[in-house]
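the four lines:
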Amino acid sequence: MTSSRPDTAGALRSATAALVAERGPTGFSLREVARRAGVSHAAPAHHFGDSRGLLTAVATEGFQTLSANFDTALVGIEAPVARLTAMGRAYVRTAQENPGHFGVMCNDELVDNDDPEFAAVASAAYLRLVDAIAAIRDAHNPDLDVDAAATLTFSAIHGLAILTPSLGDLADKTDTATAPADDLVERFTEFFMHGFAPASERAVAPGSTH
Amino acid sequence: MTSSRPDTAGALRSATAALVAERGPTGFSLREVARRAGVSHAAPAHHFGDSRGLLTAVATEGFQTLSANFDTALVGIEAPVARLTAMGRAYVRTAQENPGHFGVMCNDELVDNDDPEFAAVASAAYLRLVDAIAAIRDAHNPDLDVDAAATLTFSAIHGLAILTPSLGDLADKTDTATAPADDLVERFTEFFMHGFAPASERAVAPGSTH
DNA sequence: GTGTCAAGTTGACAGTGTCAAGCTACGGAA
DNA sequence: TTCCGTAGCTTGACACTGTCAACTTGACAC
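prediction for all of em together
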């Protein structure tokens, strides 16, 4: 009988994701979300406290699907470098497929970073990146500074996910080229690996990443 | 007598930067800006059309100071790698010193990317990055894909500038370490260079970046 | 029955962006 | 001088927003 129950909270979450995907975080409005979910304008506040609470719930959902996509992307892949590449691809793919969630997920303005459930899933996702890089350290370069490398990869991949629309514009206006985000992930990991691996192993990277 | 003229537009721009620095882009409000500038609530619209127009003007100002900071950071520095590092440092320093401008500059939501003046200064700033990387190609690795490398460095440095607050939180919650943004710029360029340089020249990087 | 509690509604409030209209001062043109 | 236009800004209105307090409704426990 769970399907006959209205699940207002869930309806509000998905209406929010749809609205953010459609109009961006700026175009989001509690009342419009309530309208789309077919409830009164104060219903969201009842479930989520305030608008930040609702957006935090959506961001939490986004990190959960990101982690799930990491899982499926990594099955059967053993080589540490290949695993990092797979995670990068999963990240940009998730961003592309869930624009409503991603528009909110890494936005300090909109989300309550201290919400315990949100903090848990966000940390979990970040730790998987750290683990992937620790594996690269173990396999290729014992001197690798894992924390700094994780910061770099996260900054780069998230910057890429965020800037993708702007980069197209910028490339047009400056007569430079830009590849699809998916290809860029490959390029990024290649660049990363030439740097992450010690001199003796650097010849490994180019072929083994695919 | 230009100093006796009120310069309402300028007052509105700096009130906007101050307000965004204080409350973030979300806390920004046209009427509050007007209040702080001591003009009526509709004055901003008269000068900038709508709220997006005002934010675009502030973003334009931000890119101008960024370019100016690139200029001063690069005087007397010749080595291509050192120049890239200097630009990275100038970028994060500008972001830290002008939070109000940076909160708006790379935000598609808030800014009109088609505004000609904005497009010009944003493209100019990006082209300087591309030039810096082209110089690295010329000096170290003729096969370097300049466009992809520029995308990577821009994504990483901008991601870093954006994520800096979140990264601190994340590091605390996951028991990982995070260095100050300034130090991370150094780390980033070291990582970059190990990758950017061809195998025969890779020994060059570590010492020559400082 | 009575009580309690979650879920949701209704109505109000101050605050918001934007638009149309008006006001004021000033710089030519007649 | 008078007239006209225009830049710069104000005033007032409109629909919309987030949030709060008060209310209703229904289900379950005792």
